[in-house]
Amino acid sequence: MRIFIGRNPRSIVLSSNGYNLSFRRIFGVSGNQQQQQQNIKTPVVALKAISDQELTEENGYIEIKNRILNGLLGLISVNGDLFVAVITGVQKVGFPRWQQEDGHISTTENVYKVLDVDFHSLDTPIFDNLFQEISEQNYEKLTNEHPCGAFKKLFSDGTFYFSRNFDISNVLKSHVLAHSMDYTIDNQDKNFIWNSNLVTELINWRSRIPVEEKQCFDGEFLTFLMRGFYKTQVVDMVDSLATITLVSRISAESKQNAFDLNGIDEDGRVSNFIETEIIVTTSNFIFSYTQVNGNVPLFWETSEGQLLYGRKPKLTKSLEHTQATFDRHFDNIASKYGVVSAVNLIKPKSESQESLGNGYKTCADSKGIKITNVDYGSGLLTKTPHKLLYLLKQDIYEFGTVVYNRDKGVYIGKQTGVFRISAFDSIERPNTVERLVSREVLELATNELSGLDITTAFLKVHDRLWSENYYWIERTYSKNTRNPGKYKKIYIKLFSSKIKLYDPLHSTIAYHLRQRRSTYTFERNISIFAGTFNLSGKLPAEDLSSWIFPEAGRQEDMYVIGLEEVVELTPGRMLTADPYLKQHWEKIILSHLNGSGERKYGCPWSSQLGAIMLMIFVSETQYPRVKHIEGDVKKTGFGGMTSNKGAVAVSFKYSATRFCFLVSHLAAGLENVEQRHNDYKTIVKNIRFPSSLRIRDHDAIIWMGDFNYRILMPNEEVRRLIVEKKYGYLFEKDQLNQQMIAGEAFPYYNEMEINFDPTYKFDPGTKIYDTSEKMRIPAWTDRILSRGEVLKQLTYGCAPDILFSDHRPVYAAFTAQVTVIDEQKKTALSSYIYSKIAEKLATISEEEKIAVLNAGGPLIDGIDEENVNTVSDDAPSSSKHKKVLKPPSSDLRRWWLGNGKQVKVVLDVNPKQYMVNPKRPANPFMENKEPLFVQKSNHHT
């Protein structure tokens, strides 16, 4: 990247990879009085791309040549003046994932530490001479006299990092194999981006520019800074290479209060919140394990004027008034990490600290959060780590760890929970606990993998990285707590800076595109096959065509296959068992799909949790439209300790329509209705996708699996009614049907009428229901449910002739009405609009162009459709938009409120006596006379 100063008018131009962006402050650009008043408060910067021919000394541009620029940090406003921030010094410190070539490590994903930054004024040339010559005197003036001197010191303190190759704000399990800027912007955790305020307008501007400009812009013009610690160390394992990467991300969610020594705020945020991740990479495996720590999440403060390490905490609100905020804090953590286990490190050495610790336990117990009290000092923890690990062992097993087999391309293990660690005024004790847990997890995981041993050299590097991490985090914490007033002022300026980017040309193009959205979007129907099968731990010994192709000769656009009991599991394992069966099953399904018709299919995503597997297969013609694929898992078996029960879920977008598919295996047993209900609630609560997307935040949901609900009738009567095909009588006593009618489980889900025999339990290899000593009552344990106005179910059945399991496979066929964006048409239309606007503005001056663009509204009277590229092959010749109901609103997505406004509705209804009326239609806008709530019967009270 190169930087130029424009003199008349004053501007800053950044040039990278042949792309030149000009930044210039402007005044009075708004088209109406209200906008003008707003711009007085919010300064405006004009941004536009210029050609190399314009960027010359003859045109008044002078290059600053003695600086090596490493990217744009963003735009900042300081006391009314505007500055362009650029990175001018970096050091490569991390490479979490790599390839081995000729015995050496080859890196494509690199992390850099920021060593220096510069701030160039858009208002005055006073400081320009300080950048023309590198000297100690000039550097002193830039740090002490320049208006951004405090920011220069802040961003150059060795705790800020960035990457050009992947999203640095998220743990490794959230990463895809291929990086893209769109993915990073959509999925990054903004709480860990410290320059978010400086790049927000750049992100908005990027969304309006053409694709070819984005490719240039995404190089060095958009940088996201993480704060904390990041370092990778190579370990020579004699026969192979390994790296250990340690990452600590300091949250910026509390903004100016990020390092305060106090408790929670009303939004559930705490200061000193740090996410720490250990990543181990070998040529065969990638491990990742995450822990979090932060201040005690209660309302408390310390007295001013006392010695730093003599401060005493004091609760400022009662626990009753704290509980709702406490719950919000843990709900936020659970939405990202899964199950949360609190570790309380407060030592009750004083009455005030004891009161803080007791309050923590009271609120945790009320919330149902497991809390472990550990009052050992760091020295004792290090000398007797077994005492700590004994207390945490159950959670360590339950949570598991992320392990990815690089050769097979499968996840062997997933982390489904997190330790939330708290201490009072201490960085050392949380760091010690995290180091010991990290070491234990890695040893447990590698014990279950053949050919991988943790050596003494490995452990030395591991512990040395944790020591460096402690040094940098403690140094940052101490520096801020010694001068809280000074740093709070810096953070207030950093997080309150506001700048509006003025880009009338692209804004006008975006306006015209919005007006003509109907010309490049259309509705179409796609067909989906959903199938679920409990395999009883067996591999298929027969053809599966009668299940996958229930209607001979018909092929669907998409197949989603859920399998349960893929393999028998043993309890108490750190990792899932036999994950390589996933590849085997992918080949089995693909061989059926690609061997029975003209259409060809690929598998864009599959995942396995223990014995539960979910796979998606998409036809080649539809493959390009399936994007943003993300998965999640949740264990529920044996109290969460193993993966014999639980769920696997996937979220993705088909063009502009969002889908969620799930397969789950719920608790078994005739009397276990309540446990199955709890399993359902646990899955709904804990399945989360990036950006905290939940199951219900999708347009279409298909949930299938072995739900294990039984029929509450005598065995002989059930078997008689099956022979007589009187499914209606059986369905009345079906537990899932009764639960759904009562509004207890799967509310607002639909199930098509069942017209097939119960699918469980058979003597394997026969069509005879269970003749063992247990003589289980036949039941429809295997089900497929759906939710979403865009879905229409066509069929529901089973394949009775596939006999190797004690279950029968079940299938359902759907059509889904999806909204498709024709990107080719949109790009062509954008180019056409640009050319027409440029043609209209070609003969007028620069000032007149700004005036015309500022006026707003249309600049083009009509579009000559013949001059715009035709729509794609799969678009209908004429398309009429059919309005469908959006997915239910939630805290994340509220379609009736704009600008991210919060909404909270309190219903004065006793849930023990009343429930949502199941007779009301799912669409709340349909006219109906049914009451919203009805009284529960005694059976459900």
Automatic annotation (TrEMBL):
Transmembrane segments: none annotated. Its EC number is 3.1.3.36. One of its GO terms (cellular component) is cytoplasm. It comes from Zygosaccharomyces mellis. Pfam families: Exo_endo_phos2, Syja_N. This is phosphoinositide 5-phosphatase. The gene is INP51. Its main location: cytoplasm. It is found in: Cytoplasm. The lineage of its organism: Eukaryota, Fungi, Dikarya, Ascomycota, Saccharomycotina. Residues 918-941 are annotated as: Disordered. SUPFAM superfamilies: DNase I-like. Keywords: Cytoplasm, Endocytosis, Hydrolase, Protein transport, Transport. Residues 151-479 form the SAC domain. Belongs to the synaptojanin family. In the central section; belongs to the inositol 1,4,5-trisphosphate 5-phosphatase family. GO terms for biological process: endocytosis; phosphatidylinositol dephosphorylation; protein transport. One of its GO terms (molecular function) is phosphatidylinositol-4,5-bisphosphate 5-phosphatase activity. The keyword Transport applies. InterPro entries: Endo/exonu/phosph_ase_sf (IPR036691), IP5 (IPR046985), IPPc (IPR000300), SAC_dom (IPR002013).
